[in-house]
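Case study.
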Amino acid sequence: MFSNTVRRSLSYTTFYLRPIGHQRNAWLTSMADQSVQRYNSNDTNHVHHSKIPPSPTWQPVKMTQPTQVPGEVVDKLERLALVDFQNQEGVECLEKAIQFADQLHSVDSAGVEPMDSVLYDRSMYLRKDSINEGECAEALLQLSNHVVDEYFVAPPGNIPLVKNEER
Amino acid sequence: MASHQVSRALREGQLSPTELCRKCLNHIKRTRHLNAYITVTEEAAMKQAQEAEMRLQNGTPRGPLDGIPFAVKDNFCTKDILTTCASKMLGGYVPPFSATVVQKLLDQGAVLLGKTNLDEFAMGAGSTDGAFGPVRNPWSEAEAYRQHRGPEAQTDWVITGGSSGGSAAAVASLSSYFALGSDTGGSTRNPGALCGLVALKPTYGLLSRHGLIPLVNSMDVPGIMTRSAHDAATVLGILQGQDMLDATTIPSPPGQTDLPEDFDIKQITVGIPQEYHAPGLSSEVLHQWCRVAELFEEAGVQVRAVSLPHTQFSIVCYHVLCCCEVASNMARFDGLEYGHRSPVSLSTEAMYAATRHKGFNHVVRRRILSGNYFLLKQNYERYFVKAQQVRRLIADDFTKVFSSGVDVLLTPTTLSDAATYQDFMREDNRTRSAEEDIFTQPANMAGLPAVTVPTVLSSRGLPIGLQLVGRPMQDRKLLAVAHWMEERLGFPRISFCGDEETGESHPWAEREGTMAGA
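After joint prediction, the assembly is written out as follows.
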C-alpha cells in the first residue's frame, strides 16, 4: 500500500506530470507507470463515482533550484535558535525545506490580506485587567533545577555563544 | 463497546467503576508492548473509580462519563502527573495545574488511566519519533492482519499514525473508552483513521487550549478519539465552551449537545472536493471514497462535485507556518524554570544551547531552524507573510463552497492504510509529514470541524477512514452525518488472534454482547 510507488509519485509528481492540453484529469507522465499510482481498473470491487475524479487532479508546479544556505547564515540561525544543525545533513534538510516552501511562489496572492487567526471576524472576550490568580511562587520554583531563595539561577549572562569552529 | 453502553451498565449496577477500572488497568499491562502509554496512573485511577462507585451507589452520578476510564495525550498538563511531550526536554516535569479539558473530564467523574505516547512535541505523523519509542498499531495484532501477513506478522507491525498514536492505540486496543489527542495538522484524525476510530477535530476555539502545550497556536485544538460518533458527541458536549483562561475560545452554539434524534440525512448536501484526489492516493481509499459517495446518493442525499482550488498548496503553507510558530513556541524551553537543564555553566547562552541540544530530538531542532530561517528579516515577507496570504486563500476556498449550499465535504483522511514501521522509517520526518497531512491540515488552516469515520478493513486487514469537514461551529451536525455513515458501514470490531481460546484476555469482549443488548 505505502509502497515506494506511492512515495515516488509524491516526490516526483511535480517534476514529471504535465497536463495534456486543457483536458482535465489527463496527464502525461515521463516515468510511465512509475510516478503515478493509478486507479486500479483490475480491482474486482471497482466502483466509480461520477463526482470523484478517477485520477489525481493536482497541477504541476515548477520547482525552483535548491537554495544554498551560506555558512554565515547557518551560524546566525544556530545563534538565534540556540540549537545546532549538528552536521551537513541538517543543513541539507533546511535546504530541502526551503525548496519545498518555494512552491508558494507559484500562487498569486497579490493584494491578499495575511491571515493570522481564523477568528479574525469575531469579537473576542477580554477579561478585566485585574489580578485574579497567583500565590503560586513556591509551586513554580519547585519545578526548577536551580533556585536560590526566590530566584531562578542562571550562569553568567552577556557572553555571546562561541562560534562553531567545527563546521 | 462504546462508552455510552458502559455508562448505562454502570448506572444499572451490572458493572462497577472499580471493576471496570481494574480491568482496563490489567489490559494496559497485557498490551504494554504497544507502547501506548508513557505514564499509567494506577493508584489515582483506582481512587477516582472508588469515588465514582460511591456516587453511583448513592444514585448521584455526575453525568454520562462518571466512572468511565479515559486516557490523555502526554502534551496536556495534568496536575501532579508527569507530563513529557515525549521529549527529554520535559524530563521530570510535573505540572502544578491541569489543562481545562482534562479538568472538565475529571469534574465529570471520568477516570484518568494515564498519559499516552506521541511524536516528540506532537511533531510527526507516525508516533515513531518520540523519546519513549514508537507506538504499535493494535490492528497489526488483530486476526485479519495476521492472516494476511502470515508468519511475518509477528515481526512486521504497522504504525498507528500520529502524532496522537498512543491515544489511538489505547482506544483501539480497548484499554480506554475514549482519549484526548491534539490536532494541529491532522494529529488526531490521522491516527484515528489508521486505528479504525471516530476522531474529531472540533472547530478552532470551541475547546480550550489552556494547558495544552502549544505547537502552532493558531491551529492547535484538543481532539476527541472514540469508538463511536455518539461518544464523540457526549465528550464534545462536556468539553466545549468559553474558557476565561484561553482568550481564543468562543461560546458553544446554543442547543443540545447529544446527537439530534430527528436528523434527516436528505436535508444535507455533500460536497466532493475534486482536488482531494491527490497523487499517491491508494486505489482502496479511492474505492471507499466512491462507495460512500454512492451510499449518500442512494439515500437521496445531494452529492456535488466542488472545487477548493488552493488545496495542493495547503501542505506547503502549513509547513512554513508550522515551522515559524514552532520556532517561536519552543523558545520557552531553556532549562531555567522547568524541565531538563544542562550542567554547562560557561554562560547563560551556552547553558541554553546545551540544554536544547540534548533536550530536543533532531525533528524538533530542524523545524526550529527552518522556522528561524523563514522568519529572518530578509525572508519574513517572502515566506512567512506569503504563507499567511495563501492561508487566507485556502480559508476563502472553504467559505465559498459552504456558502454555495454545501453542508459537509467528504474526502479521504489518509492516502492509504497504515504503513509498516520499516516502510515508514525510510523517509525523514519532514517528507513523511508532507505526505501524511495532505488531506487533514486544510481544516486546521481554516479552523473547521472535521471528523474521520472508519469504513472497512483494507485487503491487508487494516482500517481505512474517510473524513467529513463541516462549517464552523457545526460540529454536532458533522457528528450526526458521521453517525449516519457509521450505521450503514458497520465497521468491524477489533478481534485478536486467540480471543476464543483465552476468553480471559479481553474480559469485556464477552460482556459486550450482554451489555449491548441491555
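Observations recorded in class. The mean pLDDT of chain A is 76. Chain A touches chain B through 87 residues (CB under 8 Å). We will return to this complex in the next lecture.
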